[in-house]
């Protein structure tokens, strides 16, 4: 039965990097405070008028070029984002049109930061079921839209205006969340192959009892209309996050799931070449690595330069490691991720 291989990768981040010092212009924080808690030094933000599909297009074009194929050879698109261009339709259809594809099926998935793990199962099923041969997977996020400030000119260094204490305090209420996220897109082109490659096995889970550990309270269809006039004033467009609960969930569930996957597949942890974890927080990943007894060189991270790009983190990391020659054919790789929902899981992939 056919497996899959990755024949092209690409990523894109918008504009200049926004450092921790830049964020300190609009809230009470510092480079040391952010870095010690997250491992992040900088991130990128999508500019006004640009969307997740625009970043996805740039990443997809680079992946398609690397794959040395025509966009017309893509027979399925899987688009992962929690920050879509519109409430509906999904961004997958918008991306397909921007690539000049007419009639190519485009599936939108919403597992947030864990989307890559679920996506691997979908790709494996589509290829083995004969529904597709060449699949474009894209993870892209435009988190700038939920940042708690409107003073973008100050953040970007275009104005030297100093915010009042009252203005900063309103932003400070969401400081723990705002310093973590960045924008960007990663794209991978998967193709059916007869060689021994592709998904070995995966374990994925969802527990909706914890949905409100990270969620957006405003703009849902629980109300009529789905957006009320006072939601902006109440800052209900900004996600609410229980950081301690998420940290605890990640450092307990992910090592447990990884060990269970290794046990089920009779795979010694030491035989795995690379562990590619979602880039949410360097402290979380370091804790997981230590719990699994994995040497530091086997769990590469790039969160320092990009922040948490949610569904984009793993595709961006894969692209960087591919171009660096770190990720190579025949390697056995474990993916680990947890996202809002809560969704989490691990996957073993033969590269």
Features:
13 strands; alpha/beta; Peroxisomal Thiolase, Chain A, domain 1
Concise account of the structure shown:
The protein is α/β, with parallel strands linked by helices and 351 residues long. It is 33% helix and 21% strand.
Structure in words:
The chain has 351 residues and is of the alpha/beta class. It folds into two domains: 3-193, Peroxisomal Thiolase, Chain A, domain 1 (3-Layer(aba) Sandwich); 198-350, Peroxisomal Thiolase, Chain A, domain 1 (3-Layer(aba) Sandwich), CATH 3.40.47. Helix content is 33%, strand content 21%. It has helices at residues 20-23, 31-38, 52-67, 91-98, 115-128, 152-155, 165-172, 175-178, 243-265, 282-292, 303-306, 313-324; strands at 3-12, 18-19, 42-43, 76-80, 106-109, 134-141, 184-193, 198-206, 214-215, 240-241, 274-277, 332-339, 343-350. It has a five-stranded mixed sheet, with helices on both faces. The radius of gyration is 20 Å and the shape is globular. The two termini are 16 Å apart.
Beta content: 15-25%
Globally, the shape reads: globular
Strand order of the largest sheet: 1-7-6-4-5
CATH architecture of the largest domain: 3-Layer(aba) Sandwich
Instruction: Classify the helix fraction into a percent range.
Output: 25-40%
Euclidean distance between termini CA atoms: 16 Å
Find the structural class using helix and strand composition.
alpha/beta
Gyration radius from CA atoms, angstroms: 20 Å
Uncertain parts? none
Count of helix runs: 12
The top level CATH class name of the largest domain: Alpha Beta
Can you write the helix and strand succession as a string?
EEHHEHEHEHEHHHEEEEHEHHHEE
Query: What is the fold-level CATH name, i.e. the topology of the largest domain?
Result: Peroxisomal Thiolase, Chain A, domain 1
Number of strands: 13
How many strands, what sense, and barrel or not for the largest sheet? 5 strands, mixed
Instruction: Please tell me the overall pLDDT.
Output: 97
Count of domains: 2
* CATH superfamily annotation of the largest domain: Thiolase/Chalcone synthase
């Amino acid at each position: 039965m056919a497996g899959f291989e990755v024949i092209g990768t690409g990523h894109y981040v918008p504009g200049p990097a926004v450092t921790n010092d830049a964020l300190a212009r609009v809230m009470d924080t510092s480079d040391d405070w952010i870095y010690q808690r997250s491992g992040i030094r900088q991130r990128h933000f999508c500019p006004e008028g640009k969307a997740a599909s625009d970043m996805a297009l740039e990443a997809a074009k680079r992946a398609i070029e690397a794959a040395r194929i025509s966009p017309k050879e893509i027979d399925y698109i899987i688009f992962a984002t929690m920050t879509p261009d519109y409430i509906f339709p999904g961004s997958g259809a918008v991306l397909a049109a921007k690539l000049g594809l007419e009639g190519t099926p485009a599936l939108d998935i919403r597992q947030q930061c864990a989307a890559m793990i679920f996506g691997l199962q979908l790709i494996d099923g589509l290829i083995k079921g004969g529904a597709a041969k060449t699949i474009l997977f894209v993870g892209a996020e435009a988190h700038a839209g939920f940042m708690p400030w409107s003073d973008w000119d100050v953040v970007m260094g275009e104005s030297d205006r100093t915010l009042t204490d009252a203005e900063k305090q309103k932003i400070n209420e969401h400081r723990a969340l705002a310093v973590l996220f960045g924008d960007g897109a990663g794209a991978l082109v998967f193709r059916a192959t007869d060689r021994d490659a592709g998904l070995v096995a995966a374990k994925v889970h969802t527990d909706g009892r914890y949905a409100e550990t990270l969620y957006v309270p405003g703009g849902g269809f629980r109300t009529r209309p789905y957006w009320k006039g006072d939601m902006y004033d109440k800052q209900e467009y900004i996600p609410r996050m229980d950081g301690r609960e998420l940290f605890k969930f990640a450092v307990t569930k992910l090592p447990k799931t990884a060990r269970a996957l290794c046990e089920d597949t009779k795979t010694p942890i030491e035989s795995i070449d690379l562990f590619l974890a979602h880039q949410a927080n360097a402290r979380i990943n370091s804790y997981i690595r230590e719990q699994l007894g994995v040497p530091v060189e086997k769990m590469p991270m790039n969160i320092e330069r990009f922040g948490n790009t949610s569904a984009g983190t793993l595709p961006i990391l894969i692209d960087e490691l591919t171009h660096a020659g770190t990720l190579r054919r025949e390697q056995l790789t474990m993916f680990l991720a947890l996202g809002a929902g809560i969704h989490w899981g691990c996957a073993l992939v033969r590269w």
